[in-house]
Amino acid sequence: MTPPEALVRDHTVYSCVMGSRAFGLATEQSDTDIRGVFLAPTPLFWRFEKPPTHVDGPADEQFSWELERFCALALRANPNVLECLHSPLVGHIDDTGRELVALRDAFLSRQAHQTFVRYATSQRGRLEADVRQYGEPRWKHAMHLLRLLGSCRDLLRTGALVIDVGAQRESLLAVRRGEVAWAEVERRMNRLADEADAAVGRSPLPPAPDRARVEDFLIRARRASALLAGADDSNLAAPQRS
Fold this sequence. Notes:
The protein is of the alpha+beta class and 242 residues long. 55% of the residues lie in helices and 10% in strands. Strands 3-4-2-1-5 form a 5-stranded mixed β-sheet. Strand 3 (54-56) and strand 4 form a beta hairpin. The protein is globular. The chain starts with a helix and ends in a 6-residue tail after the last helix.
């Protein structure tokens, strides 16, 4: 079986920087979070043992999804996955990756309202638990929750997902530094959630993603990989019996 790190090293079609650096919220202490998509060679799926759906590493703060898994999550409007396709900091991209990025509007739909808000609700519950236990939340997480809610509202209003916070940078960093009272942070969260709720009914986004368009891309990528492997008999050779 091909080692997972080799799949990332040799078959990545797209990688980008995420986290605070992509959001425009980086400080001197910020990590560089790498997220990527790899296309496992089609012949690997012909065996009983399938290639992994994701790989953690090999570098620190690096995580990659296999293309099919990535597309499936994006079709379900997973916030972390959708944001990867809109990172302004692209590290590597090939022809397949460029086609994937060109498809990013096919993944966007009003379903983002449910997934973004559901994720935000779970994160808010954790922040509230911290407040009850420690008297204050983890301010960095509170900052990113506000960012996510604002991103969701703007996506529903405009139909475009923009992950750089732009002019909101300083107000969000003030939250991270603990300079904004928790009551005020809660008020902002409530306002952004209400504005997202109000925007969904008038959103220019379609009710559902374009699944057929994405599936066509995935099939073509798998077929091209199989044809490439067919030109290299070593990729198709059956494991030798002992």
